[in-house]
Amino acid sequence: RELARRREDGFRSVAIVFLHGFSHPAHEQRAAELAREAGFEEVVASHAAVPLPGFVARGDTAVADAYLTPVLRQYVARFASEVRTRFGVADVSFMQSNGGLVDVEGFRGVSGVLSGPAGGVVGLVAAGTADRPRLLIGLDMGGTSTDVSIYAGELPRRFASEMDGIRLQAPMMDIHTIAAGGGSILHFSGGRLQVGPDSAGADPGPACYRRGGPATITDCNLVLGRIQPEFFPKVFGATGAEPLDPAAARARLDEIAAEIRLGGGPEVTTESLAAAFVGVAVARMSNAIRELALRRGQDPARFTLLAFGGAAGQHACEVATALGVREVLLHPLAGVLSAFGIGLAARRHLVRRGIELPLAADGIEAAASALEELGGEARGELLRQGIPATDVALESKVQLRFAGSDTTIEVPWLERDALLGEFESRHRSLYGFHHRGGEVIVASASVEAIERQDRCRGTVPTEEPGSSPARGQARVWEAGEWAESVVLDRRSVLEGGAVAGPSLLVGGGSTGLIASGWTARPSPGGMIELSRESPRHDDAVGGSANVDPMRLEVFNGLFMHVAEQMGVVLQQTASSVNIKERLDFSCALFDRDANLVANAPHMPVHLGSMGASVTAVLAAQGTDIRPGDAFLVNSPYDGGTHLPDITVVSPVFDESGSRIDFFVASRAHHADIGGVTPGSMPPD
Question: pLDDT of 325-350, one tens digit each?
Fold first, then answer.
């Protein structure tokens, strides 16, 4: 009756989620039948969308899929119809968030949420491993934002995401997006230089686009000589036929310089201000990469940075230097690598099922049975799309976790002892420790069907070498002064000669800066490889103790990054639901006198009083604080919020171990302390 009434009210789509539908789907199946009988056009049952535990995320995913799919299918059907009308028989495929293609009938809303950036990751892997295996960092910097990703031998995926407050349990590329693109608007606010999060977009665009736009990172690159107007297309201004306008870029930056003076700051040149804004953007990008690497238990210094997107090449050397990376790759199709990646992508279909049994005889038998059924389902989907059975490969994996923890680690399906060994290795790499003797649970099993491809991946149309080694001269602002630079057509580098920085590489879709200390050489697949012989310290983080608005935001970002990384480690290593799921914790950084330096955006109620706990430790211990000490505080008289919230205060000493450099502190809710019953939050 209720379904019929809702259908009469005009609803066309329904999502069905029951509490235990993932393991007992019969009731959801019956409800779906009733919904179809009532006339609903789109029916999504949670057990079909996400056959895993996690009621809220499973329900959110079903709702998102039921909401998005009808709209998406209307567009997809119109698009496919128009393509076939124009070109006759056409094979229309769409990119999915998991990095694989799918046909029109199989494309669903929840699988298209991050499909565009996913193409960039596929292109990253294809291009970066065309000549040899590599560990890769993807730096995809466009006009509005920058997407960063990490490839360590397999496509970087996550199965749980939160977007706009909606929890999605769907396989997606693990991509971290930050609001720092070429069009990010520059501000001076609160005594700090800030980049974004707002963007000038394409219209009006940056100031140099001649449409009255604000100062942006693109304007900074133009002022610093990293972009040369004569090598840029003339598509700007009211007529759409004018070149970039360096004077407009300088004028907007000079307005910000005047704001700094009026705010009591120093007199700054246009170039030094532009360099400082670029430093802020570089710090944000490198911090985002460090956080992503930390979540995967990786050291970014071991990786190669592949820069793509129209703006990434202008900052790649600086980001690499900040990360300790020694090799950078510039792709000839950097401006359109995401589209290139979609063109290289294979058909993929991934299916999962919850198991939730110990890794013993019963669990292994259940997983093996599930994998066999899932393999048939995954293979059948690719066969439906017209892929021959001989061109379908299956990858079987299981997700394991320790009993009492809800964090799973995905490993290939192997014999039991090999499974345990791989799980231990990955757990240690990810978290830095391993629970020897802890019971291991098979949380779920998954099978991915992948289309086998014979075409050479990552290759690009052959470029003819340039007729001359240089296209001109330019000045580039580096280390606080102008440096003479040569402007090269990227094709000239393919002749085989090494080119030292500072130099500019101009190509069809992007401009690359070879910074001082870096050397460019041709690389297979039409790429150019930048390398540095010895690490350089980033001089953006040096300087005096005076408050300098030119550096303040860089330091702010570095300190905030430390506090945020503390939170990542705490959440990943915890087994408590309060910490892992409720996120009832906070982390902060204090100087040696217990003054707050930076706190991550965790629980607001914790943050104002945590400094009092650090002060209490100093008052109680005096000079009797040694390397390796940690102090636990929950007293309400010493900054405690309530008894279950325990603060761990840890001193960090200098290399000699004789002087405290700073303190770190973390506060978390412990369910078994405080209150009239265990749990501290009794129902009465």
Answer: 999 998 888 888 888 899 889 999 99
